[in-house]
Amino acid sequence: MAEQLPRGAQFQRSKMLWEIALGIAGDPSIKYYEDRDVSIVIGNGSGEAFTPALRMAPGSPALAHAVAKGDLDLAFVNPSAMLTQAYRGTGLYTQPLPVRVVASYPSWDRVVAAVQPRLGVTSLAEVAERRMPVRVSVREDATHSTRVLLDQLLPLYGFTLADFEAWGGSLQLNGPPGDSRRLDGIRDGTIDIVFDEGIPTWLDTALEHGMKPLQLEDEILAKMEAIGWRTVVLPKDRYPLLDADVRTIDYSGWPLYTRASFPDEMAYKVCAAIAERAEFIRWEERSFTGIEQIGTETDATPLDVPLHPGAERWYREHGFIK
Question: What percent of the chain clears pLDDT 70, i.e. is strictly above it?
């Protein structure tokens, strides 16, 4: 269905501003750590100055500090585990932040460490022990959640991402997970290890070219869980080229969150607005099952952070939670 705008010329103008923002921020030549994020501000522009009432933005996990302070009202983070760390004061955060979930965009994903069988390793511990000079494919943005995860995971094996280069290897730095440079390197065999999420865009290609996901050890997974990550299964029934199910780290859910002191009525309105405009939102086809999902625990919407009371009231009134 074609997108429907509310009545009023100001919404035609707002839509034009939105398209301008997409045209500028969507330039594929912009690096992930440059000006490619779009902030939405709702407020009153009838006077000499614009008075904001609601400020929203996507961005890095560090935006949780701005939300907690009130510089932003709502922010997206990917994945849910990063918000869990903010709530607990673990991992990336030195103290708990008063964050609360308003809604969670359903997104089913996993973090995978895929290796070339020719390396002859079944664990990252073996890579460290042998100080292997390998070519590793990771994200270029050092603030990206996958890079944060690697900074938390690799030291549990006794090394860091920089050690790959110190051992004579190299890093292939990518934008999105399905970056053509990565896919080319997988196909021609010049990449030895891939660390990433967004697996629908690259894992099938890796499996087709013989790469194998590493199984993380139980003790390592337990330590990652203590930080805020979840242990999940990468299932063979979803990826038939796997030899078997693989236990790995969850990368699901895009929580839209606020602070505990955010007005209940505004959080309620945000949920109502999502439901009202749901047919115009671009949902992940295999992850989204219905509007009731955005406030409940599912595989695609893990919730380890409390709902905001205003959002919880909306979900209860509509029968989505009891």
Answer: 99
